[in-house]
Amino acid sequence: MNKLVCISVLASSLLAITACGGGGGSDSNPPVTPTPLPAPITSIEKIQDASNYTSSELQSAAVSIANEDYAGSNASPEMTPSIAEEAYSLLFGESQLVIPSIGEEDFSDAIDANGNVDATYQCGERGTVRYLGKIESNETVKLSLTYSNCQYYYDDVTLNGRAALDILSLSEDNFHFVTYFGDLQWAYDDVITTLSGYASYKNTGTDYETGYSDTFENYITARIGDKSYKIDTTSNETYSYYSNAVSMEGDIYIGDVGKVSILLDVNGEYPPYLYETTFLMEGANKAAFIFEQGPVKFVVDTDGDEVFDMGVYYNDVYELLYGNNDKTLLPIDELSLPPYVGTPYLLDPWWDEVYTTSTIMVEPTEYYDPDNTNEELTISYRWYLNEVLLDDYTEATLPPNVAVFGDKLQVSAVVSDGVNVVESWPLEIELQDSPAEVVIDNLPDEIQAGDYVEFSVLINDPDTGESSTGAGLIAGPDGVTLSDNGVISWQVPNEQLFPVQYFTFTFSDNSSDPQTYIERDVAVLSDRDITLARSGLLVPSQNNAMHVADITGDGNNELVSTDSNSNVFTLSLINGRYQQTWLYPYMLPTDGLLRQVLISDVNSDDKDDILVVTEYGVSVITDTNKMAESLIESDLEIKSAILTDIDGDGIEELIYLVAAENYSDDTTANVIALDSPETTLFSFNVGNAKEIAVANVDDDSALELVANSGFVYDLATGENQWVKSNGFGDAHIAVPDFDGDGVSEIVGADYWGYIEVYSAITKVQLDNFDNFNTCDINDAVLSGQSVLLVGDCQWGDVTAYTMIDGNLSELWRVSSQDHGVTSITVGDIDNDGSTEVLWGTGVSTTGADELITAELNGSTITIKENTAEVQLDSFSSAGWANVIDNDERAIFFISSTESGYGSSRYIMLDKEGNIELSDTVSENWGAGTNSIATDFNNDGAGDLFTSTTNYYDGSFAAIQLHNGEVHWQYDSSSNSNIGIIEALDMNFDGFTDALVMIGTELNIFDIQNQLIIANYNIGHVTHLAPFISNGSAFVALTTNESGMEVLKITDAGLSQAASVDGICDQLITINADSDEQPELACTNYDDELIVYDFSGEALTESLRASIPADITNIQADVTTEQNQNLIGVSHNTADFSLNIYSHLVSFGTDGFVRWRGPAFASRQGQDYGNLKVRKADSGNLEIQTSTYSSAIWVH
């Protein structure tokens, strides 16, 4: 479709086609000689019978109709931006002044011998068009077109009314025709448009070398709904290989405004997207759009002195044509170039997840200003609901329940430089049909184990707000019921596995088709201690992350530390060896990786508490047996934090650095009191600070905050007292009081380069020296003397300095023992009354990390040797065993140690958390990860079926747990890996046998008698499940190639008993029904659980159900013997999540979750067999599992 100024171009192409002939057909009528109509003849009748009138008469008739149809003002208005916008858009924008295609039919077969045409054509979709006229010659044609409810396949409008085509010339170098509109009418978006007048098009020229010329003349009235417009313009276009030019002049009549005269004369450009020209307009005064290669300036002469004195900018032509503009004029000399802002993009949630209940967040793609920095711009947002501006919402976030499914929701970004306000093109956000919600009413705020609970359940449609009691209870905890009126009754179990356990209720929306399921978790609290967990020796990679404190309140100090990832723990130095005495197993309530641990008495119980600084918050642990709580949460990233009592009231303040990102140059230091963390006492700008310290560094009594970036602030008044422009050091800060006068010196250190000492009183440097590469500095009081402790990077030292006569002087120096130094701290870790110096090392290399402890005696420092066991890299659950003399332990296999450079071992963990570490199991790492704890020979002393290696040769061994002696070992061929290991008495001799995958061969070993029962070469096996059914021994297995097979053990060895197609990614035995025989449960990559009955000769699918995604390590819940549920591990798999965690999950064979445990820090290992379950003597469930960094025993 074409604009009105180009109507003639459309008509010329159509008429050229009809003149040249072609196929087609019509309801032709025989030629007739027109009979003169009685006078007077109306103008519209002339258009309807064009062939009987001259071109001059037709033009006069069209002008007469247009003038009669125009019902607007002819006055000349005062020019404003909105009037100018409307005039420009009327000529060049996409408005209702766009006509559908006319004259489309090929009427060549309807021309009779005299050149007459009278034919009626079907319009395709519906309706007709009648052609009536005469072909005088190849160059002279007059046709009248009468449309009656005419709609074509390619148009969505229906045409009615009359028009005419008048070809005046049709030669190669002169083409001239006119389209006359009588009362042509159509509707678009339910708005009726009626067109009258004429449009003339004339083309001259023969080729692009000499050039062409197009002349357009338009006299058009359009009535659009209740609005009236008239266009009276003439324009000319010339174009050739070498140049093109456009000129246009005339009048635009806007019904409720009046007449605006326009003038355009431009070379090398074509409207509407002009870039270096002026479009003149005149009403009662003169105005213009000045196009400036992007921005468009509107100017106007408001005082009639022929000089433009007021104006306003548009960001570009697009904003001029289509923006939601409300422009305010300013004096010309106050104008500045407008900013640019791009269309915002949807930040959260994803496109296909935007619902009525969603909090919708957007961000700008980009914005900038030619005259200002981004910091000088303000950005806001305009939200439109069904094209109506929502005045109450100007931020980047739209709360839930503002827009609903079916609404048209748009948002644009608005940027202002203080003069110009620019709005972006809007982003349209499509809301999805919201799934039904379960609304729970009367649920207690807190539910304890053993409570009796009743609450109401409704099904709610978020899009309509309608609720009903039509919820069905599909699955839930044992003993729960749902009444007809929607009331849940539940006797909460007395016993549960965790301090907080989330019981899942699954409801159905009975009104939906297909039926939808909705889960709701209900948290139940208990007095259980946190889950027992232990890890290997870990050291932090960030500074100020280890502290010596009495966490248990028993009068003995522990070392509180973190791995700067997900674990926080305590170590005690007992009999010269570090033992981990506590580890927090769960994900902290604040987001992100761990940054630091800090120590303070948060709850004023005269006992040290642990504050854990994460990337986006600070969590607090006031009881090592209970769960952590959130102290503060931050939208900005926390870089580091310190504790200090700034006002001497006995309550410490937390000072923490936040920035948009870790390496930002725009960092803020926030100060809060621990007893009122919701109130920020101070916020200081500290530039690009990485570390902060607090001390009295000047001659008043107040403490100061000192940042390595060079800022010093008074913590009593908040006043800035010094800004050292190039900072004290680019990495580190410390504030030792070298001379003990109560005024500390400021020490800054570069990561590469100098350590420098300053006085805040004189604001001068006192001393400096080049330390090459510094990883940490700290101030401490040792033997009554304030010292500076410096930890080198690379293969360096830890050194203590004091200051004598204004110069730094070395007190002692000791090797860091490995690569780099982190978190230097001091304290009496061995509880002997003297102070030790501790630090981490090795974290900057791929080798083992080490915790170093040094004994200080005056100016002599001595490394405490052999204080730590080897570093344990990862854990794999092996099960439980009595190590000896009824000493039951949970056994975990460690496939590698010392950051992958050490051999495999195993640990034996008792219920109090004590760990006993074995000697090396292999000559080197890499044997395998799967081991089974058992007592194969029934002697009361536990054993371990495990893999061992001798360099590249794998072996299977049965090892005595308590002393590591090998009962029996089977050496594989060179380069064969030991894979899956399982255990079961396969030959019914009363002793447990081993099932071992060695390469692609399944071997069944009789360990007691030291012989091979059977072997079977099958390929790459992913799972083994040995079981007894009807008195025979079987082993089910899955491969990557052939699906699932069941092998039967016979006197002749192993033979296939049954098989099914389909790849299983997990396989276990389970009793899923009420009989005594086990079934086989398989999960696939489509997140389905499939249960098979086994008859001894065939596998039959008995049920199939969808299960939660990302469930691994499934096991049968053995607390019941029939109709067993399953236990598995659910992993957080969000690609951009701040937290990596996993849950233990119970779900039924129907696929519905029954309960979830709290999230464990880090993901649980997905190695084969990493989850072990058993029924304890109490009848309760016990679980053994591990994350990538810790061993976990749930009991």
What is the gist of this entry?
Among the domains are: 340-429, Immunoglobulin-like; 437-523; 529-623, no CATH class; 624-863, Methylamine Dehydrogenase, Chain H; 874-1017, Methylamine Dehydrogenase, Chain H (7 Propeller). The protein is 4% helix and 49% strand.
How much helix is in the residues?
under 10%
Mean model confidence by pLDDT:
90
The structure class reads: mainly beta
Question: So what's the overall shape?
Answer: globular
The CATH architecture name of the domain at 624-863 reads 7 Propeller
- Could you describe the largest sheet, including whether it forms a barrel? 16 strands, antiparallel
Number of helices: 5
Strand content: over 45%
Poorly predicted residue ranges:
1-35
What is the topology, as strand order, of the major beta sheet? 1-2-3-4-5-6-7-8-9-10-11-12-13-14-15-16
CATH topology group of the domain at 624-863: Methylamine Dehydrogenase, Chain H
N-to-C CA distance: 75 Å
Strand element count: 90
| Radius of gyration (Å) | 43 Å
Q: CATH class of the domain at 624-863, please?
A: Mainly Beta
Name of the CATH homologous superfamily of the domain at 624-863: YVTN repeat-like/Quinoprotein amine dehydrogenase
Explain this structure.
There is one protein chain. This protein has 1195 residues and is mainly beta. Among the domains are: 340-429, Immunoglobulin-like; 437-523; 529-623, no CATH class; 624-863, YVTN repeat-like/Quinoprotein amine dehydrogenase (Methylamine Dehydrogenase, Chain H, 7 Propeller), CATH 2.130.10.10; 874-1017, Methylamine Dehydrogenase, Chain H. It has a 16-stranded antiparallel beta sheet. Strands 30, 33, 34, 83, 84, 85, 86 and 87 form an 8-stranded antiparallel beta sheet that branches. A 7-stranded antiparallel beta sheet has the order 52-53-54-55-56-57-58, with no helix packed on it. The longest helix has 15 residues, at 55-69. The protein is globular. The two termini are 75 Å apart. 44% of the residues are buried.
